[in-house]
Amino acid sequence: MPWENVKDILRPENAHMGVMEVDKDICTSCGLCVDNCPFKAWEMDEDDHPRLKEEYECFSCYNCMVACPVEAISIVEPYHVDDGHWATDSAPLEARMPMDPLNAEGGPDQWNPVEQAVLERRSVRNFKDDPVPEPFIRRVLEAGRFAPSAGNCQPWKFIVLTNKELIAKMDEMVWASTSGLYNMYKNNETVKNLAPMVEEGTTGGLFDPRLALGGMGSVARKSLPASLNAPCVILMAGDERAISGPELNIGIAGQNMNLVANSLGIKACWVGFLAGAANSPEIAEMIGLKPPWRVITTLVMGYPKFKQEGLVPREYRPVTWVREGSEVAEID
What we know:
Alpha-Beta Plaits; 14 strands; NADH Oxidase; alpha+beta
């Protein structure tokens, strides 16, 4: 495939990383925003206040905001892409906090416990070394086992890893493969060798700037290992014959597990990078994984080092309504 046909995918020109700001008058210089940024976009300045690095990646997860104990961090501009293959619709989308809850009659209300759990859940990436008790792991697995699935096919299999040596080995495998791909992507000449991958049409969002620069970059630079130093890794395998495909069903089960983990005081994060290592012949043989089973994604869990959950803004994409008695679509 000619380079010009894929240049917009592999070298987007109008991707804007998120821009955050710190109020130095109230900042306590605790550094938790630096620690809680998955891409390590922050650094401490000469006055010991956090600032964004000269070159950085920020995909507007706002996890720096939830870690700040004094609410010193604010949004200047969310991540967005103006045009081209990765264009945000529309760009940039407004970041909004959750709406005020209303009751059935439209009056003031409060979020119920399930809503609160969903709204305050964040991806946790900083864990203590303490092991996760096995009874808690089993409760998380039960939440996945009882998830809904297409046609009730229940196409999941869970493999629990708490062996530190094995997790570290998989981290190294991910680093080796990811760093090679990342270095090829970053180089203006070798990036052209990735054109055939794009042509095959199987890469999905692999070269979305948020992943290509941020996620792969963090792994390649060893800012954090793929396992995030979590003491427990759950490999989530799906049956390739599943109704609707394994990805949808595993996603539903995994979100059940994620929420239950949080409810038990152990926090969790989705990690896609480890799936490649888990599906390698060496690891697959060790864990007894054979076709039609394939690891789709992973959930890492542990006790959090510091507070990493809470309400943050999210992109607001206008909702289309076709209400009873109307033949006109309304957008709000």
